[in-house]
């Protein structure tokens, strides 16, 4: 008789400013109990971040599979890019580093991928077939592709060119502040970027997230897309929930 599928898993979301974790219901994507967060150590070296992630895990009475997100491309458990953390991460196996301080088998994936997976399964894209594209507008532009509920990992589509320039330099939320753009001006740039993605991918649904999604009324109505677009629902818990899902589905497992 095969063992019963787990009803919960543990997720840790490693970010540039904080490392947070929680136990997640695999039926609803909701946290079971509270989320726990510790500031990301500076500098965010592999050794320091691994120690902090272990402290987050130790806060919980949990044994079982663990999913961990990382703000960079992760392939077969190894970090390939590290834009907002210490460059010493590149080439390091996040699985090998964290396994000794975690309460179970470790699976790792990109942070935007985790958020997109969670939104597609539990949030704004729940029940939608076909290609769902999540775009997070923050310091950069993160993207996640989920087709019929299955994640297509490491789609770094924030770096496509728009008017000969890296899209995230033009249209990330940080560009609005850096260039002193009005909501109308920034929305025009976001619109250009999303229209280019639309032409390339022809998705069934766009989900937009990031800090600016909290002020969606100021810019989403200014977009001109043929594809349906909705605002992310899971906010700060999306990465944790997506990491927990990845833990039991073996996404990007080494």
Can you give keywords for this protein?
2 domains, 254 residues, transferase, 7 helices, alpha/beta, five-stranded mixed sheet, ATPase_NBD, Nucleotidyltransferase, domain 5, 14 strands, EC 2.7.1.63
What's the short story on this structure?
The chain has 254 residues and is α/β, with parallel strands linked by helices.
Please describe the topology of this protein.
Layout: E1 8-14, E2 18-25, E3 36-39, H1 46-58, E4 66-70, E5 74-75, E6 78-79, H2 94-98, E7 106-110, H3 111-122, E8 131-137, E9 141-147, E10 150-152, E11 161-162, E12 165-166, H4 167-171, H5 173-178, H6 183-201, E13 205-209, E14 228-231, H7 238-249
Parallel strand pairs: 1-4, 4-7, 8-13, 13-14
Antiparallel strand pairs: 1-2, 2-3, 5-6, 8-9, 9-10, 11-12
Topology as H/E string?
Answer: EEEHEEEHEHEEEEEHHHEEH
**Termini separation:** 27 Å
Biggest beta sheet attributes: 5 strands, mixed
Determine the CATH superfamily of the largest domain. Answer: ATPase, nucleotide binding domain
Shape: globular
Number of domains: 2
CATH-defined topology of the largest domain: Nucleotidyltransferase, domain 5
The helix content is 25-40%
